[in-house]
């Protein structure tokens, strides 16, 4: 297959799915991994996509945000390992906050201890938790359709009246300085969660590392990071400021 055709097919896949894995491209294009890597390098140099661990993704914009449905089909194995690592940190009788999001949904699936109380701003999480007989407190407010997260003044007021032993939150962007998210209101909710928790963990697969979104949530030093990627240049800088837990 001609290089121009390969690059066209790669761009079509990235445009459609926002992310494509190296393994998929090797099989779909019926070519070697080294050839695919060269094609991806060229496309990145042409500013048509961005290379990430394990593949490539469409170019990231500050206020761009995928829906939970779009996120739920990406990096499932990595997210599952991250969720399992997070679950191992929860102790008997903990009061924890679980943020909305697809990785945190996998964390909900790992919970079985009825002595743990969970506070969440996700209707979807709350339903699953109640079905598992886990004591659950749901935060009210305006529900953001794309992420299933309660946001706004009501959510902020309710979170501000509570304390948590541990909080598990998601982020869209993690660079060497800040945790960030595309939406200012959702960013304010995440900030409130962090401020009311004794210990906060950010759950993020490698696709979030090196990205910067519109709204700053907190400096990197304010939370620990659980991720499947612990060797990148960005991670080395993050390790200078906070604990990085490998999943």
Automatic annotation (TrEMBL):
Transcription regulation as UniProt keyword: yes
Signal peptide: none
Annotated HTH deoR-type domain residues: 3-58
SMART domains for the chain: DeoRC (SM01134), HTH_DEOR (SM00420)
UniProt-listed SUPFAM superfamilies: NagB/RpiA/CoA transferase-like, Winged helix' DNA-binding domain
UniProt feature coiled coil, ranges: 26-79
Keyword annotations: Coiled coil, DNA-binding, Transcription, Transcription regulation, Transferase
One function term, GO molecular function aspect: transferase activity
Top-level taxon in the UniProt lineage: Bacteria
PANTHER family tied to this protein: HTH-TYPE TRANSCRIPTIONAL REGULATOR SRLR-RELATED, TRANSCRIPTIONAL REGULATOR, DEOR FAMILY
Protein's recorded name: Lactose phosphotransferase system repressor
Organism per entry: Streptococcus cristatus
């Amino acid at each position: 297959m001609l290089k121009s055709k390969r690059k066209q097919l790669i761009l079509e896949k990235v445009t459609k799915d926002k992310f494509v894995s190296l393994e998929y491209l090797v099989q779909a294009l019926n070519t070697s991994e080294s050839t695919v890597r060269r094609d991806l390098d060229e496309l990145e140099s042409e500013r048509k996509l961005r290379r990430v661990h394990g593949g490539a993704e469409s170019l990231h914009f500050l206020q761009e945000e995928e829906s939970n449905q779009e996120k739920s089909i990406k990096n499932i194995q990595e997210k599952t390992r991250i969720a399992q690592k997070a679950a191992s940190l929860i102790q008997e009788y903990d009061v924890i906050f679980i943020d909305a999001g697809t990785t945190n949904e996998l964390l909900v699936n790992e919970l079985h201890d009825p002595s743990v109380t969970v506070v969440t701003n996700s209707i979807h999480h709350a339903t699953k938790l109640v079905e598992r007989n886990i004591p659950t407190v749901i935060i009210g407010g305006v529900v953001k359709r794309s992420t299933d997260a309660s946001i706004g003044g009501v959510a902020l007021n309710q979170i501000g009246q509570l304390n948590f032993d541990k909080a598990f939150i998601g982020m869209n962007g993690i660079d060497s300085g800040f945790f960030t998210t595309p939406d200012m209101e959702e960013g304010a909710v995440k900030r409130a969660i962090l401020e009311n928790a004794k210990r906060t963990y950010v759950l993020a697969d490698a696709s979030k590392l090196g990205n910067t979104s519109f709204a700053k949530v907190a400096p990197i030093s304010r939370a620990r990071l659980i991720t499947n990627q612990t060797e990148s240049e960005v991670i080395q800088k993050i390790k200078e400021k906070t604990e990085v837990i490998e999943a």
